[in-house]
Automatic annotation (TrEMBL), chains A, B, C, D:
SMART domains: HDc. GO terms for molecular function: dGTPase activity. Pfam families: HD (PF01966), HD_assoc_2 (PF19276). It comes from the Bacteria. Residues 48-172 form the HD domain. GO terms for biological process: dGTP catabolic process. CDD domains: HDc. This is HD domain-containing protein. InterPro entries: dGTPase-like, HD/PDEase_dom, HD_assoc_2, HD_domain. SUPFAM superfamilies: HD-domain/PDEase-like.
Length: 433, 433, 433, 433
């Protein structure tokens, strides 16, 4: 298979080919990887399908390198090639539980893509499960446990999920390529060459330090530049409010019979099956949104149009000190005729670009270890000044969203509103005098 | 706007910005540029929106170059900058009339994207028309006439449609980038630099010969490699048969009330409005296909699943001499339990990579003229041996499609069927003895 | 080793590492791959060293693919891995006999880089020979015979020299990268994947047809665009005349004692040793040219300045019919005060982009064979219309070079001269009336 | 002119074309940009010529952007287009004073490329000066003053030399391209678009923050990875010692008459003219080194061979605490028969990746200012956490160099020597017990 990131994706095992041909996996073609981000970066129209085969390919290359350079001869902490198939399947299927606009959808309907991934792997009704079961009866559960990080072999687990894994490496390169930014590039080939298995997981030779550092910095930059972009987040806010409104209308029986969004009903009723979930994709949701553009509920109709026709809210950053001013802003928005519940929002985006292990911390992570010439380890941020600078700090911002109409010069409450805005920040007009 | 092909797309005119923000244009985000091709080249998930802004950007660059280097001082055949806006709008909107899976959809429902483009531009009910009318009352019609090639200024017409125009240059580069093939690349910057307006349209300085030649060859290679790929064509065959079956079922009143594909009804009834058409996109069609996977009509259900879950037909090439054998193959397919009307097809794909003007020919084209140092013209194929080799010849192939199941080793009629196949060609088994 | 074309060059054998570290190989760092071409394409400053390690890397990748996919089990026409080292060494060393500005130098001094390659490999005085001999006493001769195409295993020979070999594939990609043109690109990875050994050499699976076709076309375009560029050829003409003049001056004892170009003496005297030859590089020749800029011989001094300071001759194309006019042009050049022997030249450049085997022909070549699904072969130009168009035809041009001063508007003989020039062609002014 | 970094370099002014055609500028073709670095990164064979035209091209693009977007209407701190030519010439010529292996050569012979640049511009004997004088009598001095940073218009000065100037932007992109590393890439086009002139120099719109940050980080990474590479520094150490030895031999009259390196004599005698300097290039120096390979002085001969045939010294890092151990190491090297004066060295490489203005500091720099929406400025490190982390800190290392032979297992003093080495650091063997 031709691929713009990896040139080719080599499928050597019939199990992998059969998994790709299942309907659950083909469904990923109809779910965009970056959700609303292509409203900002129009090139970013790639799907979770494309990313998933990319993660498979990187996993395959890691397995090949490990088998070529570090084959285990038994109990030596090196690579046991019998782990290959479970690693490849986990790489390919790690995102199989994602649905349309996952983040927002989960928030509104209480679904959980990680549980759904496990369900798709282990439920006998799916084609994916049928393919996996042919390998062995407990194979579906094994693949699921890799994704859940409970699999005993930490090398396999860390390949798929750690601070530098096949998933992240593929999405950085791919999102960078499709958005056309060049922040996400790093030297994949060198990182792969310098990876090596050891007793407790995966390490890198010290000579890969700069390549690994560059990967961490690239990741940090992609978050700042692409994933946290205010316009994409604004579109997500609108989507969130749109689904919330639909849920409210359903609860209050305001959908007419011939307009019922049939495929969403089980979710409105909070009583859905795996089969219901697997029918959803971006197109299904958008089809309802198109329908709602003619709905007699003004808010539903307006938000649907804003979402489909890309009319994002505007936004400003705020901090603890200015957060208390937000109710004043919401009041002015209400004066302009917009229900603040549906037409304003606060939204924060924080990323922990890299972290080290500290006993007692909330977010326990597998830190990146480099192996020196004499076989001893050193943790990445101990040798990289750049990584050190961003280690353990949550970076991001908190934003307040509001309709663009508030930026008009008239009427008066608009001008009042704008006194709270300066250089992309929420300020206290009182303190400016 | 960030763009992977042109780095940035520069929107300098508020008219262009307003056009991009219309709902008719935003709808292009939900229609993939290459239809079914991403079943073969999984990276090719880009939309007509992305391509359209790219065509705008190339048009803008041509206008800038013309204005910088060849500004008209009146009646000298050079560039009149008052043509700029009509050119930019035509470049941006040339594909606005496309719907989901255009080629097949048109074939089944008799829609015509060129007429629909004109309708969207000139119908007072569209947002696009409202934006264009603000420029001047006859501006919508002017833009339409550029796309219909009836606009008086041939420089503007040829920018948008000729054998080397902004449309083709963008889609070659873009499709090449997103598929990850490198056949479609050529030196856009040099071609743009060497373009120049003259009395009867657009010409190129002779020193651009190799760049233009490379563009023609790249185009030829993209057709052979990507656009004519048998698997994509096979998916199109399935889509065609699926919609045909749906139409047949509708005609014979086999759709149950609660399963009616509402948004398609006007097309089944051959009585649709522009508003009906503008509600369609890839996701809407796919949503019906998802629904049809549970339909009790076995053929509809099976074809919908094949389309959604990517189960292409197999195919072989045939020529005039072997065409007569196809009924024999269809008979064997029928024996296997597949209705040949829905499970086989012939499909041809031919491209005319480059052509010269010859009085009396069917396909009249604007040939590519190069300007020599002394101001005289010479036609491209007269100086390029490579272009000469493919000028005026239709290149492509004709294929017969059938279910993959015919390649099994059992039962007997499968083995019989396979006697007709050799090295991707249909052969006469009788002649092989 | 980091490489811009192949990302990394992997040295796995100590023999290869030792060969790279010999002084004869390190000397290639000081000889530019494209000779005078960087006067036209200023980016093309790469050396034969860089190209040679690239050829090694492609050869290594071919050997790896062959060993992985087609390991011989004895007398089956597949790949015998004992051939690996001889192939790698031949790939690395195929250009070791090249000196500075090879083409011109050979022409003037009668050296022969192929013979010199063999001498460097087999002469006991070189470090290269010492490294090779450690493998086995007859190993130097074996490597030499691969380069001379007399080695019995045709798979090894064709890897290094055939119409699609590691040498050509590296230089096309590399020259394209460094010149910044994009004509030389093709899908190396696909070609390598689809290569396979067979009894009589190397073949390609039919599904590589388009990639191989693209390689042939790319090669054709690089010749037309880069290798045959008139300005580079003009610089070569100047170099040729400069060395000719120096030889003449030496013969007529016009070099003063303290100005003798010591390292060139053995070549003036036509009595040079291998050691003499290995002292030469681009810098040595240029150093003499710098010295000659102060020489009292006006022609030597002027040509040296033209070469070093890039003052190329102008040129026009001519054909058989107009060749007879050249003496008239030379007469006018002489009237302008330029000795036609040193200030004019004719120079032809022809390439045979692809050829097929025909008994009785002069240029016998190994044609490119594609293997079909049933194991039968088909020759490339039989399936590719583009390749067919350029098969067996010598493509290129013949040019007449003259000083730029002839293009001035005065005096009269310049204006007379210019009557012979039209649109880059030599014409007969008499026939224009 | 085709260029791999900027696609094309557009020469629009005859002054620029004439400058490129001077012999002083053409000489830059024969001087490699990165000196000894291509011994580590073999692709890095590009010359100062290539870089210089690149700096010109970026300068041209800045001038174009300034003139298009910020043309001065008198005394408004915007761009005065009469400054264009002086900016372009300064960009093109900023490196004209460089000679072969500049850094080392200057160190040994006390030349100064900045003074030499001024001399080449202002001395009436050079072709460069003759071209510049045609513009106006004081034009050569004006161009020189831009390069010396004394020119009154700070916009022009900062274009050519500041923490983010045309010089640095070109060499980062170019060195990255030719080495094949991808650390040096950043979004040139965005930076150029967001640059704007103001009263005191050049600033950037705040929305370019991430692009500017990325440039600073890229620069930091290139220093760490490429410019400070221990092997290149080792080759420079050898070159330094080689020239030192030659100077010593000359001083002690050890060069035979027919072996005198004529073109170096004026430098040995510390009595050179501009004309002498302009005869030097990489090739001239290498030609002497080739000659010295046969010299009877063993040290000169050995160092020349090490330099030409790439036999670098090995090295380890040390810090203040371990510096005192170096004499012990030198003693062991001497025991191995190597004169420590010529066979060992310490060498430090430090870079100040970014700095802010602080009154009273030694290294006063123009800090990077970003302009916010309300027109106020903010300094880069105040908004970028990554830049903050490396601001004002010298980053790099100090290394001790020694012959590779010290790493052999025998004799005893080698094993003793190795006790001082651990994980690329100099350690105190006594403290390890």
């Amino acid at each position: 298979m031709r691929d713009p990131i990896h040139s080719y994706i080599y499928i050597q095992s019939p199990v992998i080919l059969d998994l790709i041909n299942t309907k659950e996996f083909q469904r990923l073609r109809r779910i965009r990887q970056l959700g609303t981000a292509n409203s900002t970066f129009h090139g970013a129209e790639h799907s979770r399908f494309t990313h998933s085969v990319g993660v498979y390919e990187i996993t395959r290359q890691i397995c090949d390198t490990f088998q070529r350079n570090y084959p285990s001869k038994g109990n030596d902490g090196l690579w046991d090639n019998r782990e290959r198939l479970v690693a490849l399947c986990a790489g390919l299927l790690h995102d199989i539980g994602h649905g349309p606009y996952s983040h927002t959808f989960e928030h509104i309907f209480g679904t959980n893509h990680e549980e759904l991934t496990a369900a798709i792997l282990t439920s006998p009704e799916t084609e994916v499960n049928q393919v996996l079961r042919k390998v062995s009866p407990d194979f579906p559960q094994q693949v699921a446990s890799v994704i859940q990080k409970t699999y005993p072999n930490q090398q396999v687990v860390q390949m798929i999920s750690s601070q530098i894994d096949a998933d992240r490496m593929d999405y950085l390169l791919r999102d960078s390529y499709y958005t056309g930014t060049n922040y996400g590039t790093f030297d994949l080939q060198r990182i792969l060459r310098m990876m090596r298995p050891y007793q407790d997981g995966i390490t890198f030779h010290i000579s890969a330090m700069h390549a690994v550092e560059d990967y961490i910095i690239s990741r940090f930059q992609m978050y700042q530049q692409v994933y946290f972009h205010p316009v994409s987040r604004s579109m997500e806010v609108i989507l969130n409010h749109l689904l919330l409104r639909a849920k409210w209308l359903f609860k209050h029986r305001q959908f007419k019979a011939n307009n019922t969004p049939n495929l969403l009903l089980p979710f409105f009723e909070n009583n859905f099956s795996l089969k219901d979930y697997l029918k959803l994709d971006d197109g299904v949701l958008n089809t309802y949104f198109i329908d709602w553009c003619d709905n007699q509920d003004k808010i539903l109709c307006d938000l649907a149009q804003r979402f489909l026709n890309r009319k994002p809210f505007k936004s400003i950053k705020f901090e603890k000190a200015t957060q208390q001013l937000i109710p004043q802003l919401q009041l002015l928005v209400a004066q302009a005729g917009f229900d603040p519940q549906y037409y304003t929002a606060t939204n924060n985006c924080y990323d922990l670009p890299y972290d080290i292990y500290e006993p007692g911390k909330n977010h326990q992570v597998t830190q990146i270890k480099l192996m020196r010439d004499d076989g001893s380890f050193i943790e990445l941020s101990a040798v990289s000044k750049l990584v050190k600078a961003i280690t353990g700090r949550f970076l991001g911002d908190e934003r307040f969203f509001f309709p663009k109409q508030m930026l008009k010069t008239n009427p008066l409450f608009c001008r009042k509103f704008q006194k709270y805005l300066k250089n992309d920040w929420l300020i206290d007009p009182a303190s400016q005098v």
